[in-house]
Amino acid sequence: MSGSDFLLDCPDLHVTDLTVESDAVTIHVRSTAIVSSCPHCGGHASRIHSRYARTLTDLPICGRRTTLLVTARRFFCDDPNCPRTLFCERFPQLAESHARTTGPLTESHQAIGFALGGEAGARLAEQLAVPTSPDTLLRRVKAAPDQPLLPPRFVGIDDWAIRKGQHYGTIVIDLERRRVIDILPGRDGVALKKWLEEHPGVEVITRDRWSAFAQAANEGAPKAKQVADRWHLLKNLREAVERILDRFSPQITEIVQQTASAEVTLPAMSATEEPTTESRPVQPIPGVVVPTPPPTLLSAREQARQAKKQAREQRHRLVRDLRDQGHSIRAIARQTGLSTKAVIRYRRQETCPDWKPGRRGRSQVAPHKLDVEQWISGGGRNTKELHRLLSEKGCQACYDAVRRYVNRIVGSTGKPGRRTGGVKPPLPSVPSARKLSFELVCPPKLEPEGGMAEQYAEPRLLDRLRAGIPGLAKAWDVASELVKMIRKELSQPLPNWLAKAEQSGVSELKSFAKSLREDDSAVTAALTESWSNGPVEGQVNRLKLIKRSMYGRAGWRLLRARVKRKD
Fold it and tell me: Of 382, 237, 327, 8, which Cα lies nearest the Cα of 318?
């Protein structure tokens, strides 16, 4: 049999025997070359010293593992100036020196390692009849050469967490080709500055508003245009609005409770329906003293919640007292053991912030409240029927959600039969400042004209807050104007908006405008250029997936090799 039938580009190798088993194929091969080249001096040698067997693993044949048993030779080197007397015969077209696998199989192992890593890759390799260990796959990945890259012109940079809160790195993306160029240690800008100096052809740099990246870009690539990321601009603006709403939390709570109290109505009882025993008021008996019922005991969870709330209120009062005494933020933080961010939040708010853990969220049935009330007033009691009617109108709530919502409105006697009487529904929870701030960047969408959400739409809470809290409307309008500029729905020079923010009288907007002035060129480019940091965020997510899928073995060299590899 001719070896060329099995081994391409190796004309000097010939098959001498072939063994086929149920799960393996063994091919015996020998070399027939007359001369061989010395790997040290390059001279040709023809005197054979001895022979030895070399075992190589190759790609599978028909799903069976393939092993090559190569009979190689040792030669005498005839060059008197060569320091080597003997050398082994090489087969560069088949495998590298001292390798145990052929070139094609090594490339296959590299592809598996790049795609899946060590453990998962080893399991797949076993199924593909090319078994190997996880360590071997990782060595293949780390030994693979970098793919050639063209000089980047448009790059995006961002930070990523090696260990969140402790160690960070910097990722550099080619925005033109949508692939990772490199990952750098740290996010202080030192490594980024050096990298930019080594790549003078960079024309555009997209980044977030991290000051270290801005300084590194100014020093490492002074001629490049910097573009701030629009998503981070919206995020920073939303955080400023959240701080504004935090200051008005007492007024917001008051307005929400007043509005909810005015809107609470009980289901109407028909004129022909007589009140049941449960709903008939109890008349007092003269001379009989009715004992006062004992107070309701709190559960262990509620007691722990109350204790945490009291401790939080004590910390808030302590921070406010120290502020009135003239202590600095850092001094208060050292004395109370709080973080500086918590101290700033307590100093800003007149009342203790209450996040109300465990509060009930808004039900998906709430937009269909009027439909539910009309169904109840019409005598409807079959919740399954109500769920079917709401589903036909576009409600995506499940049956249990509809049942719980109906029970909160009409109540239940706990006994079989028709439910009578009404139970006053609980007051809705006050939305947090964070939740309200998101209405600035992603306002709720109305359904098409004629839809039920628009037909029965009530005045938005935000509109009531704007009307009831002096100063909030102006701050909201100024912030909304910047949102339209970022989304390119409104075109006006950035200095005009900065002037409006500084003249608004809102301290949070003034601080935000001041930070934008320090980075005005990049922010202006963000409002006019089409470049975005979106591809960078996508590659950061891919990096996190690769890092977390390697079971803690994501060393820098291995992680860099896998992240830079283009899928």
Answer: 327
